[in-house]
UniProtKB/TrEMBL annotation:
Protein name: Magnesium transport protein CorA
UniProt-annotated location(s): Cell inner membrane; Membrane
Gene Ontology MF term list: cobalt ion transmembrane transporter activity; magnesium ion transmembrane transporter activity; nickel cation transmembrane transporter activity
Its membrane topology: Multi-pass membrane protein
Organism of origin: Aestuariivirga litoralis
Length: 334
């Protein structure tokens, strides 16, 4: 699909794309999962070679950031949450040719429609190729900040479920603080957010590289008011990316800590179960010993002929079981 946008009265306007060619007043060509015909049309009008989907996936810096045929090519990984709330990362290419912006993408980051909707209203920034590119990257970074904020909230909620209740201390019996909390679900949730934050950090790094390359290109341009404004906005954008990258690193560390903590709690609960079986074995060991003694087939055992022998044996077994139980309970081992 080919979306064509122009600028009028400081606003972004959508223009029709005809089969014959492209409107001359177009300032932004948005190629979304383009067909071969759409790619050929744009290449013919602007005289550039649009990278293929396979070329977009290249990781080398030389393949992602370069200048060719008077155009600037920059590729960055953008991330979005899919319909099932799972992170989806895909490369998006930004091309500047003759102050016209061309974007090539094969997925649908939420920042694009959000920016288009906002840009339909009057803007204070320049509505040309470079100005729209910087505004679009600002929208992408703002969206990344929202994603990281949501991930931080989920991590905080998980932390409260893990640590936000009273603990069971030695010698003091307290209510189980994790009653009703499924630790396996916590691990799955932590793992999902860890994967998302990792991909978001990778996305921010790639965006930062693209912005740094864009600033290097701007430094080579002839100085004027528009270039000065673009440079100032680019520097602010770089600072925002660095801040978000640091925050993503912080969240990654917190997620790793929570994962280790939940695994430790699972180990503690497993040890508690084993302890219960161990204590039960010790409690039932004396009664078993008593029953074994009176179960031996000797010819002469005084208690066998005693009228109270059977109640005595039963009482002895109960007593030998109750005494260790209360001893362990008094020590706080149960």
């Amino acid at each position: 699909m080919l979306n064509v946008y122009g600028a009028a009265n400081g606003c972004l306007t959508e223009l029709p794309a005809t089969a014959e060619g492209l409107p001359p007043e177009a300032v932004w060509l948005d190629l979304v999962e383009p067909t071969a015909g759409e790619e050929s049309k744009v290449e013919a009008v602007l005289g550039i070679d649009i990278p293929t989907r396979e070329e977009l996936a290249e990781i080398e810096a030389s393949s992602r950031l370069y200048q060719e045929d008077g155009a600037v090519f920059m590729t960055a990984n953008l991330i979005r949450r899919g319909d099932n709330d799972e992170p989806e990362s895909s490369p998006v290419t930004f091309i500047i040719k003759d102050n016209t912006l061309i974007t090539v993408r094969y997925h649908h980051p939420q920042a694009f429609p959000a920016y288009v909707k906002r840009a339909m209203r009057p803007q204070t920034t320049a509505m040309n190729g470079w100005g729209i590119l910087i505004s679009l990257l600002e929208a992408v970074v703002d969206r990344a900040a929202d994603h990281l904020e949501r991930a931080g909230q989920i991590v905080d909620e998980t932390s409260k479920k893990t640590f936000g209740a009273k603990r069971t201390l030695a010698g003091v019996h307290k209510q189980n603080p994790r009653k009703g909390v499924n630790l396996q679900e916590l691990i799955e949730r932590i793992g999902e957010e860890g994967d998302f934050v990792s991909k978001m950090r990778e996305s921010l790094v790639s965006i930062g590289r693209a912005v740094a390359f864009m600033q290097a290109v701007e430094d080579q341009a002839r100085e004027n008011k528009q270039v000065k404004e673009n440079k100032a906005r680019t520097k602010i954008l770089q600072r925002d990316i660095v801040s978000l990258t640091d925050h993503a690193t912080f969240l990654s560390g917190k997620i790793s800590f929570l994962l280790d903590a939940v695994l430790g709690l699972i180990s503690i609960e497993q040890n508690g179960i084993i302890k219960i079986f161990s204590v039960a074995a010790v409690v039932f060991l004396p009664p078993t010993l008593v029953a074994s003694i009176y179960g031996m087939n000797f010819a002469f055992m005084p208690e066998l002929q005693w009228q109270l022998g059977y109640p005595f044996a039963i009482g002895l077994m109960i007593l030998s079981a109750v005494l260790p139980y209360y001893y362990f309970k008094g020590k706080g081992w149960l």
